């Protein structure tokens, strides 16, 4: 677990930042935000339900964020809030200090003279910013990022090392992109002609809203003619593939290793688990939930949960199920024959 | 949708480039190539069948590429061609102007003195080209690419930002590689020895033909002893994994998130959909088609289509099917018992 | 197959390095380590069992590594060892010469003044090393790598081009990381609050042991509060996703395209095939084996093999099985009804 680097916060400050009620010493200094299992008496942790009572009893934690109804479970310093998990999320930023940077442009960065950078941006080592690109105030471009021609990155974004933002790709404000993600690559569009594939040049853009999060090595293609669009507050995990012309509605979450084929529309507030494959040219309705590892070939109904596949078994049992599966049609016919027998 | 940046083409030029018959004004200037839905009266679009008649009626499009039999569907400017979709693909390159570059080597690029570059290459910012590498005429290496020792890139290639081409990897002509792809990484080869894994150094090469397309963050391993080989006009989407010693035949298409394990041979003109897993040491015959999300563990027959897995269901129905699947062998036994009953 | 670049080894040296018994001429010079199929009379190859007898008969190979019991199969130069496959692995490093580098720091590298580099490191072109980072002796950082603040890389590591090592990530000795891998990205942690996702800053580290191998474009997240941990001699293939707080035990092998969700513990010496999806918050026991393409949602038992999914079929047969699968519950009810019939 990370060393705090000497940064400490007073419990009173933390309670105030969280609009919480402090039961304890406001001058008490917190060294780290920690899990119950690893916390020491100088650390702050949190519980979200009474089921953590046992872990709390075994913990050396010095201060705790919790809800009113659980105040009796702990007699150290307490910060009482309505939603302890959200409070933990909010205060976590105060302990994430290693990526703070003063506004500056590293001398090794290659910034085209026609690019427009706000005054207080941070541009790390070996960053490349091409002609006509625009970078908003407070945005950090970490080492080795690439921003193509006429692309724009909004305000207060954090673009981690090695990210490639193609030409004419547009990000809103407060977007976070993890390392080596690719935004705006050419979609997989080819026309067959005389027995060969001819590339269809991808002329659309990729447009990303505000407060979007994009995981490491995730690739989002630009549109073929119209745009690929990611709305506000969409969160996308690592190694996700989003093909050309896909639209994703606000608040949708997509876990790692998922792939979405071209021209599919994903609604608002969907929950798509990891390793899901979604066919092209279909519509995933608002609020759809999809289990991990599912293959979705048809449009879904709003608010419904979907899954495909079969549960894992030990290999011997799996082989038997798999063999029978391949002959299900025959088994069905045998049942029909039995039903037709004279009684 | 992208602004044209002031570039306009005359309809007469376009018709000529496409060997098409123009019905309309050859001096008419086209601003963008656009979808029917977003096209304005200054834009060019296309239709491939009569099923687009409704969309066409609702469109403001000014000029249309279409086939002879559909000429009556539109009374604006028309370019009549044999294959409108292929014509759209061909003309799309004329509207893709942002990546045009004059031959030049950016001062920040690190090019080894022993590397051999053709006169008219474009080498972007922070590109690294190592000793003995060769870059062919007309090729563009965009910002931050890496070309290892003794690697070669043919003529008229386009290598997008952040691509890593390992040592002794060889690309043909007109190869396009999307951002952050990795070409020639070490294969996953280890020998167990005294309860530990010992690395097998990967001594083969990766050899890629002409007119190949490789997607963003796709990784293709070099061979262990012999070479990994990708033949001409293979097209590969994003986040595809191709392991060591794989051979892929000409004209094969592989969609996103697919993985191919080591030493497997893929024939010519196969169509492999997204999120497919293909076992190692098997042969996928020429013209094989594989549905999205399938797991292929055995060799296939030429020209056949394959699939695995079960269709998605709503979660409640899926749970019931899944539970029964795990007891298919028992269900089969019960049917056998019923069949053996005396009538 | 790769040209040897003029480097030759004498058979006597090779036999000595492998603790092998030489039957043949110790002054015989080997040009390449090669497969049986491609070997010439100047090359060295190996066989691991009598099943290679046919391939050996067709080969032009000049020298062979083999076990005592197979000595009669070949009458050229022979090196007799206990385990020919392990011997091949060990000697392969002697033929992998293109990445040898003299200690040096490329002038284009951006190394922060507070970073601590051992004397004999190799730092390639455009590498970025941030404040407080430590690089051990003998380690090579190839072109364009990024090492974040307070990160550390042990001794004799090989970090291929384009790898991103986030701040406060720690690698042991002899770790090999293939191109564009991402180590220590923020995990996918968000708290819902007022109908929106709030980022949970990821304060844990990523700690990697000795002799670990990490594939191209593989992404391993740092921990949320505690650390993500990869123990010694774990080997991980390309495009693998490892989420926050995962622990992986020593000697475990994970093939390409596999994804492991957050807080799951993987035991020691597990064999996880490609394209496997493993749920979060479960425990994969020591020695577990998982077949390719499986979805694992529950904890496993030590030493057992697991699989899920159904075997691929030709599309027509697959459609029939798939349709029956969706009505398995109904089929079961029909069998129950038959069983209840009066005899």
Tell me the span between the first and last alpha carbons of chain A.
71 Å
Please report the number of helical segments of chain A: 5
Q: How is the CATH topology of the largest domain in chain A named?
A: UDP N-Acetylglucosamine Acyltransferase, domain 1
Shape of chain A: flat
**Rg from Cα of chain A:** 26 Å
> How helical, in percent, are the residues of chain A?
10-25%
- The appropriate CATH architecture of the largest domain in chain A is 3 Solenoid
Largest interface: B-C, 81 and 76 residues
* CATH homologous superfamily designation of the largest domain in chain A: Hexapeptide repeat proteins
Number of strands of chain A: 40
Short description:
Chain A is of the alpha/beta class and 343 residues long. Chain A contains 5 helices and 40 strands.
Structural commentary:
Three copies of one chain form a homotrimer. By secondary structure, chain A is α/β, with parallel strands linked by helices. Chain A has three domains: 9-95, MurE/MurF, N-terminal domain (Udp-n-acetylmuramoylalanyl-d-glutamate--2,6- Diaminopimelate Ligase, Chain: A, domain 1); 104-306, UDP N-Acetylglucosamine Acyltransferase, domain 1 (3 Solenoid), CATH 2.160.10.10; 313-343. Chain A has five helices and 40 strands. In chain A, the strands form six sheets. In chain A, strands 8-11-14-17-20-25-28-31-34-37-39 form an eleven-stranded parallel sheet, with no helix packed on it. A ten-stranded parallel sheet of chain A has the order 9-12-15-18-21-26-29-32-35-38, with no helix packed on it. In chain A, strands 10-13-16-19-24-27-30-33-36 form a nine-stranded parallel sheet, with no helix packed on it. Strand 39 of chain B pairs antiparallel with strand 40 (313-314) of chain C.
